[in-house]
Protein backbone atom coordinates (compact mmCIF):
# COMPACT_ATOMS: atom_id res chain seq x y z
CA UNK A 1 0.00 0.00 0.00
CA UNK A 2 3.00 2.32 0.53
CA UNK A 3 3.34 2.74 -3.23
CA UNK A 4 -0.09 4.38 -3.36
CA UNK A 5 0.67 6.76 -0.49
CA UNK A 6 3.98 8.06 -1.88
CA UNK A 7 3.62 11.66 -3.04
CA UNK A 8 6.11 11.00 -5.82
CA UNK A 9 4.06 8.14 -7.25
CA UNK A 10 0.76 9.88 -6.56
CA UNK A 11 1.83 13.02 -8.39
CA UNK A 12 2.89 10.96 -11.41
CA UNK A 13 -0.35 8.97 -11.38
CA UNK A 14 -2.43 12.15 -11.13
CA UNK A 15 -0.48 13.85 -13.91
CA UNK A 16 -0.71 10.81 -16.19
CA UNK A 17 -4.48 10.58 -15.71
CA UNK A 18 -5.26 14.29 -15.95
CA UNK A 19 -2.49 16.14 -17.75
CA UNK A 20 -5.06 17.86 -19.99
CA UNK A 21 -6.85 19.15 -16.90
CA UNK A 22 -3.78 20.23 -14.93
CA UNK A 23 -2.23 22.03 -17.91
CA UNK A 24 -5.44 23.93 -18.76
CA UNK A 25 -5.97 27.63 -18.08
CA UNK A 26 -9.19 26.81 -16.26
CA UNK A 27 -7.52 24.50 -13.75
CA UNK A 28 -4.64 26.92 -13.19
CA UNK A 29 -7.13 29.74 -12.62
CA UNK A 30 -8.48 27.80 -9.62
CA UNK A 31 -5.29 28.88 -7.82
CA UNK A 32 -6.70 32.44 -7.75
CA UNK A 33 -10.02 31.53 -6.08
CA UNK A 34 -10.27 30.87 -2.34
CA UNK A 35 -12.14 27.86 -1.00
CA UNK A 36 -11.90 27.18 2.75
CA UNK A 37 -9.89 29.41 5.08
CA UNK A 38 -6.65 30.29 3.27
CA UNK A 39 -6.86 27.32 0.91
CA UNK A 40 -7.34 27.93 -2.81
CA UNK A 41 -9.80 25.91 -4.87
CA UNK A 42 -6.84 24.31 -6.69
CA UNK A 43 -5.21 23.24 -3.42
CA UNK A 44 -8.56 21.89 -2.25
CA UNK A 45 -9.25 19.73 -5.31
CA UNK A 46 -5.71 18.30 -5.22
CA UNK A 47 -6.15 17.43 -1.53
CA UNK A 48 -9.53 15.80 -2.23
CA UNK A 49 -7.96 13.79 -5.04
CA UNK A 50 -5.11 12.62 -2.79
CA UNK A 51 -7.42 11.57 0.04
CA UNK A 52 -9.74 9.86 -2.47
CA UNK A 53 -6.83 7.81 -3.83
CA UNK A 54 -5.78 6.79 -0.34
CA UNK A 55 -9.34 5.65 0.44
CA UNK A 56 -9.48 3.82 -2.92
CA UNK A 57 -6.23 1.97 -2.18
CA UNK A 58 -7.59 0.81 1.19
CA UNK A 59 -10.90 -0.31 -0.31
CA UNK A 60 -9.19 -2.15 -3.17
CA UNK A 61 -7.11 -4.08 -0.65
CA UNK A 62 -10.25 -4.94 1.32
CA UNK A 63 -12.35 -5.94 -1.71
CA UNK A 64 -9.54 -7.93 -3.35
CA UNK A 65 -10.25 -10.81 -0.96
CA UNK A 66 -13.63 -11.56 -2.56
CA UNK A 67 -13.96 -9.51 -5.76
CA UNK A 68 -11.97 -8.83 -8.94
CA UNK A 69 -13.63 -5.45 -9.44
CA UNK A 70 -11.34 -2.48 -8.86
CA UNK A 71 -12.00 1.19 -8.33
CA UNK A 72 -11.55 3.28 -11.46
CA UNK A 73 -8.63 5.40 -10.25
CA UNK A 74 -8.38 7.42 -13.48
CA UNK A 75 -12.01 8.53 -13.26
CA UNK A 76 -11.56 9.13 -9.53
CA UNK A 77 -8.63 11.47 -10.24
CA UNK A 78 -10.33 13.39 -13.03
CA UNK A 79 -13.61 13.75 -11.15
CA UNK A 80 -11.78 14.75 -7.99
CA UNK A 81 -9.83 17.49 -9.75
CA UNK A 82 -12.96 18.85 -11.44
CA UNK A 83 -15.53 18.52 -8.66
CA UNK A 84 -15.19 22.25 -7.82
CA UNK A 85 -14.53 23.53 -11.34
CA UNK A 86 -17.03 26.39 -10.92
CA UNK A 87 -14.37 29.05 -11.70
CA UNK A 88 -15.44 31.98 -9.52
CA UNK A 89 -14.77 33.28 -6.01
CA UNK A 90 -17.88 32.48 -4.00
CA UNK A 91 -16.69 34.73 -1.16
CA UNK A 92 -17.36 37.79 -3.35
CA UNK A 93 -21.06 38.61 -3.13
CA UNK A 94 -23.11 38.10 -6.26
CA UNK A 95 -26.76 37.21 -6.73
CA UNK A 96 -25.64 34.30 -8.92
CA UNK A 97 -23.60 32.89 -6.00
CA UNK A 98 -26.18 33.30 -3.21
CA UNK A 99 -26.98 29.59 -3.25
CA UNK A 100 -23.41 28.46 -3.96
CA UNK A 101 -23.63 25.37 -1.76
CA UNK A 102 -26.61 24.08 -3.72
CA UNK A 103 -25.68 25.21 -7.22
CA UNK A 104 -21.89 25.03 -7.64
CA UNK A 105 -21.84 21.28 -8.41
CA UNK A 106 -24.05 21.86 -11.44
CA UNK A 107 -21.93 24.83 -12.50
CA UNK A 108 -18.74 22.75 -12.13
CA UNK A 109 -20.25 19.97 -14.24
CA UNK A 110 -21.32 22.40 -16.96
CA UNK A 111 -17.85 23.98 -17.11
CA UNK A 112 -16.15 20.57 -17.07
CA UNK A 113 -18.28 19.23 -19.92
CA UNK A 114 -17.49 22.40 -21.88
CA UNK A 115 -13.71 22.13 -21.42
CA UNK A 116 -13.04 18.37 -21.18
CA UNK A 117 -14.33 15.01 -22.35
CA UNK A 118 -15.84 13.20 -19.35
CA UNK A 119 -17.18 9.69 -18.83
CA UNK A 120 -20.24 8.82 -16.76
CA UNK A 121 -18.34 8.21 -13.53
CA UNK A 122 -16.51 11.52 -13.76
CA UNK A 123 -19.75 13.39 -14.39
CA UNK A 124 -21.44 11.67 -11.47
CA UNK A 125 -18.52 12.51 -9.15
CA UNK A 126 -18.85 16.20 -9.98
CA UNK A 127 -22.65 16.29 -9.88
CA UNK A 128 -23.09 14.32 -6.63
CA UNK A 129 -20.15 15.47 -4.49
CA UNK A 130 -22.39 17.78 -2.42
CA UNK A 131 -24.69 14.99 -1.23
CA UNK A 132 -26.73 15.26 0.98
CA UNK A 133 -26.95 19.05 0.38
CA UNK A 134 -27.84 18.09 -3.18
CA UNK A 135 -30.39 15.32 -2.66
CA UNK A 136 -29.33 12.85 -5.39
CA UNK A 137 -26.94 10.26 -3.86
CA UNK A 138 -23.76 9.06 -5.61
CA UNK A 139 -24.41 6.40 -8.25
CA UNK A 140 -20.87 4.99 -8.18
CA UNK A 141 -18.40 3.99 -5.48
CA UNK A 142 -15.93 6.51 -6.94
CA UNK A 143 -18.51 9.28 -6.44
CA UNK A 144 -19.10 8.25 -2.82
CA UNK A 145 -15.33 8.27 -2.16
CA UNK A 146 -14.89 11.82 -3.48
CA UNK A 147 -18.00 12.92 -1.57
CA UNK A 148 -16.46 11.70 1.70
CA UNK A 149 -12.97 12.99 0.91
CA UNK A 150 -14.39 16.42 0.07
CA UNK A 151 -15.99 16.79 3.48
CA UNK A 152 -12.88 15.57 5.32
CA UNK A 153 -10.63 18.00 3.42
CA UNK A 154 -13.03 20.91 3.98
CA UNK A 155 -12.86 20.31 7.73
CA UNK A 156 -9.04 20.04 7.72
CA UNK A 157 -8.70 23.22 5.64
CA UNK A 158 -11.05 25.16 7.90
CA UNK A 159 -8.79 24.30 10.87
CA UNK A 160 -5.58 24.90 8.84
CA UNK A 161 -4.44 21.26 8.89
CA UNK A 162 -1.96 20.57 6.08
CA UNK A 163 -2.96 17.68 3.83
CA UNK A 164 -1.13 17.90 0.52
CA UNK A 165 1.61 20.55 0.48
CA UNK A 166 4.27 18.12 -0.80
CA UNK A 167 1.97 16.74 -3.51
CA UNK A 168 1.04 20.29 -4.55
CA UNK A 169 4.71 21.21 -4.78
CA UNK A 170 5.43 18.22 -7.04
CA UNK A 171 2.43 18.89 -9.30
CA UNK A 172 3.40 22.56 -9.63
CA UNK A 173 6.95 21.53 -10.52
CA UNK A 174 5.64 19.10 -13.14
CA UNK A 175 3.43 21.84 -14.57
CA UNK A 176 6.35 24.27 -14.72
CA UNK A 177 8.59 21.68 -16.42
CA UNK A 178 5.93 20.79 -18.95
CA UNK A 179 5.04 24.35 -20.01
CA UNK A 180 8.64 25.61 -20.00
CA UNK A 181 8.47 28.06 -17.10
CA UNK A 182 10.89 25.94 -15.10
CA UNK A 183 13.67 27.04 -17.47
CA UNK A 184 13.05 30.67 -16.53
CA UNK A 185 12.78 29.81 -12.83
CA UNK A 186 16.13 27.99 -12.93
CA UNK A 187 17.74 30.77 -14.99
CA UNK A 188 16.52 33.40 -12.51
CA UNK A 189 17.87 31.34 -9.61
CA UNK A 190 21.25 30.93 -11.30
CA UNK A 191 21.43 34.67 -12.02
CA UNK A 192 20.53 35.45 -8.42
CA UNK A 193 23.23 33.05 -7.19
CA UNK A 194 25.79 34.66 -9.51
CA UNK A 195 24.94 38.13 -8.22
CA UNK A 196 25.27 36.88 -4.64
CA UNK A 197 28.65 35.23 -5.33
CA UNK A 198 29.91 38.32 -7.16
CA UNK A 199 28.90 40.54 -4.25
CA UNK A 200 30.61 38.23 -1.74
CA UNK A 201 33.82 38.12 -3.82
CA UNK A 202 33.85 41.93 -4.08
CA UNK A 203 33.44 42.18 -0.31
CA UNK A 204 36.22 39.67 0.33
CA UNK A 205 38.55 41.47 -2.10
CA UNK A 206 37.78 44.81 -0.43
CA UNK A 207 38.56 43.40 3.00
CA UNK A 208 41.82 41.85 1.73
CA UNK A 209 42.88 45.15 0.11
CA UNK A 210 42.05 47.10 3.26
CA UNK A 211 44.17 44.80 5.42
Describe this structure in words.
By secondary structure, the chain is mainly alpha-helical. It folds into 2 domains: 2-179, Hypothetical protein af1432 (Orthogonal Bundle), CATH 1.10.3210; 181-211. It has 10 helices and no strands. It has helices at residues 2-5, 7-22, 25-29, 41-63, 73-82, 100-115, 120-128, 141-158, 165-179, 181-210. Helix 4 runs antiparallel to helix 5 (73-82) and helix 6 packs antiparallel against helix 7. The protein is globular. The mean pLDDT is 86.
Average pLDDT across residues? 86
**CA-based gyration radius:** 21 Å
How many domains? The number is 2
Spans of at least 5 consecutive residues whose pLDDT stays below 50 are: none
Which terms summarize this structure?
single chain, 211 residues, mainly alpha, Hypothetical protein af1432, 2 domains, 0% strand
SSE topology:
Blueprint: H1 2-5, H2 7-22, H3 25-29, H4 41-63, H5 73-82, H6 100-115, H7 120-128, H8 141-158, H9 165-179, H10 181-210
Helix pairs in contact: 2-5, 2-9, 4-5, 4-8, 5-7, 5-8, 6-7, 7-8
